[in-house]
Write a structure and sequence with these properties.
Strand content: under 5%
Number of strands: 5
Number of domains: 3
InterPro entries: DUF247_pln
Protein name: DUF247 domain-containing protein
Keywords: Membrane, Transmembrane, Transmembrane helix
Order of helices and strands: HHHHHHHHHHHHHEEEEHHHEHHHH
Helix content: 55-70%
Shape: elongated
Pfam families: DUF247
Mean pLDDT: 85
Length: about 425
């Protein structure tokens, strides 16, 4: 009887377990995450420790990942005012407007690597407010006449700076489909053919080389603004340059001053980050704007690439610049040739920036875009003739630094030389007198 009872108990337990697994399988069939893989990630802890501020919002939370941060709550009232202005300006019904977040809710949820604790209504409200906030920023930036006289963001330079920093953060993104869908409610007599990507392009004009690069059709592939900027600066889609063949083995090139010592000439041309050519002893690089948003831009795009993006091209560009820049002298060389447009001030700051950008990043050999270029530069600079030229350059620089840096050094050298010659003459004369 005991065995029979145990058997019945096990059967009941199996039935209960089967029902539990069945419910999970049923939920799985409704899950759409495999159709839309996550694209908004938490930055890996090792990268975050390198510079916490470059991944953390200062002014506003967009999306659910930083929504609970107390210091960001002040902007929630501003978002409500944006919604009120939008409804009044375009005479839109709130229920109609809510149709966009309701339609996109499931898609938006699976875009985030972390699950959100917000319930249905809270999540929909977040999507609506953050989406309208983005649209209003884009419109006010493009059409200054839409700005209220007391608009705190457009009246305060520091707030605009913090805001632009915040919208560049990988953890602080909202899927582009949301603001793009909400833009459909804007009166077309205002837009006159201006697209969502036209608005985005102007909004991010001061970030890296955005303003100098043309918009292309492939921007529609972007799922959020970090990816939008990545595509905008990528080699094939933005610059029309096909990826070069990747080497199986390579070494990073020498610094800019070391290459110059070996006879390499520098020239700036274009704005595509990947339009880098070495031919006949001349290295041609694009001009790069370096300002207060450069570090945030590069760090968050690198984090996105390292979290599973299909290419590591922007990471490759940063590695190339880091190999060219070791000291402030390297920065000055690149600035003097128009390759870097310095809006940060001190050359030491830019050198430190590029020397710290890709720490904790692992890049495989076949993922490094500039492998062939680096090999060509190294072969050129290690050629016996150019090696001799490099050593000669270093000797001349050492002499200038140690002996010819000021008139007194030159006088001391000449006096020492004369004294040495007189000493030798005196010694020779003494020897002759003895004989």
């Amino acid at each position: 009887m005991a065995f029979a009872g145990d058997g019945a108990g096990r059967a009941l337990a199996k039935e209960t377990l089967a029902s539990k697994i069945g419910r999970k399988l049923s939920a799985l069939s409704k899950d759409i995450s495999h159709l839309f893989p996550s694209c908004i990630y938490r930055v890996p802890e090792k990268r975050r420790k390198a510079n916490e501020a470059a991944y953390t919002p200062r002014l506003v939370s967009i999306g659910p990942l930083h929504r609970e941060r107390g210091q960001l709550q002040g902007m929630e009232l501003y978002k409500l005012r944006c919604l009120q202005n939008f409804l009044n300006r375009f005479e839109v019904n709130l229920d109609s407007l809510l149709g966009v977040p309701e339609l996109l809710e499931r898609y938006v949820r699976v875009c985030y690597q972390d699950t959100s604790n917000l319930n249905g209504d809270q999540f929909l409200e977040m999507i609506l407010l953050d989406g309208i906030f983005t649209v209003e920023l884009f419109l006010k930036n493009y059409f200054p006449e839409l700005r209220e006289e007391n608009d705190i963001i457009f009246r305060n330079r520091w707030m605009w700076s913090d805001l632009l920093h915040d919208v560049l953060l990988l953890e602080n993104q909202l899927p582009i489909h949301v603001p793009k869908g909400l833009l459909d409610f804007v009166d077309q007599s205002l837009l006159k053919g201006i697209t969502f990507y036209d608005l985005a392009h102007k909004f991010f004009k001061d970030v890296c080389n955005t303003e100098k690069l043309p918009l292309i059709e492939h921007h529609g592939d972007a799922r959020h603004f970090v990816e939008f900027l990545l595509i905008h600066h990528s080699p094939m889609r933005s610059c029309g340059i096909r990826s070069s063949l990747r080497a199986t083995k390579f070494e990073y090139t020498r610094s800019a001053t070391e290459l110059r010592q070996a006879g390499v000439k520098f020239r700036a041309e274009g704005s595509c980050l990947f339009n880098v050519v070495f031919k006949n002893g001349e290295l041609v690089l694009p001009s790069l704007l370096v300002n207060e948003w450069t570090e945030t831009f590069f760090r968050n795009i690198i984090a996105f690439e390292q979290c599973g993006y299909h290419s590591k091209d922007i990471t490759s560009y940063v590695i190339l610049m880091d190999s060219l820049i070791n000291t402030p002298d390297d920065v000055l060389l690149l600035v003097n040739h128009g390759i870097i447009k310095n809006e940060l001030g001190e050359s030491e700051v830019i050198a430190e920036l590029f020397n710290s950008l890709y720490k904790e990043v692992v890049t495989e050999t076949d993922e490094f875009y500039f492998a062939g270029l680096c090999n060509d530069l190294n072969v050129y600079s290690r050629d016996p003739f150019h090696e001799f030229k490099s050593k000669s350059f270093r000797w001349r620089r050492m002499l200038r630094r140690d002996y010819f840096s000021n008139p007194w050094s030159l006088i001391s050298l000449l006096a020492g030389s004369v004294l040495l010659i007189l000493t030798v003459i005196q010694a020779v004369c003494s020897i002759l007198q003895v004989k």
